[in-house]
């Protein structure tokens, strides 16, 4: 869980694609503000690659680019807002939102954080590193993530999870460079984004089963909010 919290459960998985498309559309709109041509906009290029990998419809992608870049006069503006605080049992959390109405999102976050503690700016972020996060899977048998990380210029990596996905950590300025380099090292990039990695993650074993369930329930409620893009939590994977 340390890098980015992801919901579990069949009922959540059933709605995952729609929520993923919605969040990707927002990412595309925000990235497209810097230009509608991915050749000259690395942030947009990375998001578009992710959208195509999950089979996001082309017309949905095109509409998001037009809205973000203002083509056709149909511009949509989103504010990027970070909320910091604690889940139950003092587990640090950073919540990344993209919203078209901060006056709606802020009170919703205050309500959601009632079972934890909403902090002020800087109250939790000091305990996280702002990094690039690249999820990738081996494209060929025997691909070595440690060698790939070194050769591609990644700062670190977390070994493959149960899905066979390795998380490569980069300096935030090197996200695009490392993403481009990993395929030559035998890895297919699935997602690439900036995020927050906890410096001192809490060991889940230090929490009781009931406490951990309370944390999971809190995180699921936060993640279900339409304005939330990513939830980063200080729990060890």
Automatic annotation (TrEMBL):
GO MF terms, alphabetically ordered: DNA binding
Presence of keyword 4Fe-4S: no
Full protein name: Probable transcriptional regulatory protein WKW82_18615
Gene3D superfamilies for the chain: 1.10.10.200, 3.30.70.980
Subcellular location(s) of the protein: Cytoplasm
Coiled-coil region(s): none
Chain ranges of the TACO1/YebC-like N-terminal domain: 6-70
Pfam families: TACO1_YebC_N, Transcrip_reg
NCBIfam families reported in the protein's UniProt record: PRK12378.1
Main location: cytoplasm
Highest taxon in the source lineage: Bacteria
Family: Belongs to the TACO1 family.
Ranges of residues in domain TACO1/YebC-like second and third: 79-232
Keywords: Cytoplasm, DNA-binding, Transcription, Transcription regulation
Species the sequence originates in: Variovorax rhizosphaerae
